[in-house]
Fold this sequence. Notes:
- This protein is α+β, with helices and mostly antiparallel strands.
- It contains ten helices and seven strands.
- A three-stranded antiparallel sheet has the order 3-4-5.
- Helix 1 crosses helix 2 and helix 9 (269-283) crosses helix 10.
Amino acid sequence: xxxxxxxxxxxxxxxxxxxxxxxxxxxxxxxxxxxxxxxxxxxxxxxxxxxxxxxxxxxxxxxxxxxxxxxxxxxxxxxxxxxxxxxxxxxxxxxxxxxxxxxxxxxxxxxxxxxxxxxxxxxxxxxxxxxxxxxxxxxxxxxxxxxxxxxxxxxxxxxxxxxxxxxxxxxxxxxxxxxxxxxxxxxxxxxxxxxxxxxxxxxxxxxxxxxxxxxxxxxxxxxxxxxxxxxxxxxxxxxxxxxxxxxxxxxxxxxxxxxxxxxxxxxxxxxxxxxxxxxxxxxxxxxxxxxxxxxxxxxxxxxxxxxxxxxxx
Length: 313
């Protein structure tokens, strides 16, 4: 029985796995700038993207994809419309052009498949990006439309700027050592009071976060007697707390946001909220904007101040 496109994609990408290593320690793939996969999540997401591309292109085998038809596909995609739900009006389908983020993810998947760099194709959705950050009042209203379990996750993600998947990995700071391959700023969490926890982010980076004493006490009420393995989008996580996380939490948050506010910027908007509030707080301690960005970048799981600009729009 022939392999499905998803099975083909996973088989092709499996040879590029370097789980448990840091991005700095692994090689790039072929002639591309993309590093070998250091996390299962990234591997699975790229495999899914590649399978979806192959289906749209109408090929039955990945071997049929060439650099020429890959570029043709990307150039056609930038003009394509994708249906979305418009909750501001009568919940009708509306159309919007494929985003730059989607195009970049597809270009990455194709580049890795071909082991060749592909020129960047720019989305025709050329309009200024509006802020995704929520206000504290908006987050409180959204929480009222969630279950207690998911509302707690919203509170935690808002306080620490977490990704939805990182909620699976929450542990006390004395239970897991932060990544030693990075040089951490001693000024992280300046001005914050509370208890420290750790989460595992992209690339397996283990970093500290700070939760207020009140939030920490609420979280500990959801402590599991023994860790449980939970699966989200094909990735397995070891969880120590019974709280909302991953795709289910993201959906809960978006649904609650639409009910409470009439729109949704997604659970990722909580990271934007954290970044914007924290930058001002860090600067209030006499730090320049660039110094504050560097500290903030480490708090949210990056080590390049430039990346934080995405969250500051």
